[in-house]
Amino acid sequence: MFTGIIEAQGNLVAIRREGTNVHLDVHAAFTHELQVDQSVAHDGVCLTVVAIEEDVYTVTAIEETLEKTHLGSLTEGHRFNLERCAMVGDRIDGHVVQGHVDTT
Taking the complete model, does pTM exceed 0.90, yes or no? Predict the structure, then answer.
């Protein structure tokens, strides 16, 4: 779950296509705090961290996500609004949101 409060911005440094999926490499100041399999909201869209290398992490957007969000039209250099998932016991400012798109 997310609160909808932007925590940081990240820079899209690489886009790699693999079949109908797209791997996005993102540079962010909090990368060193991430772990593989954590959820991060990218401009409000929940994506799972699949790899981390130094200060860049990778997430994968599947075909459905690319069709229902703006992520399919991104170019390198895009600045994401980022939010890490809420932790149990944290104070929740904003509101509770899933970050999953059901429909457009």
Answer: no
d(CA 66, CA 21): 8
Task: Of 70, 45, 48, give the one whose Cα is nearest residue 58.
Answer: 48
User: Distance between CA 70 and CA 38 in Å, rounded?
Assistant: 21
Q: What is the pLDDT of residues 12-53, one digit of tens each?
A: 999 999 999 999 999 999 999 999 999 999 999 999 999 999
Token representation of residue 95 = 């509101």
Contact 60, 48 (CB under 8 A): yes
Name the token pair of 89.
């016991």
Pairwise CA distance, residues 48 & 46, whole Å: 7
Q: How far is CA 57 from the centre of its chain?
A: 10
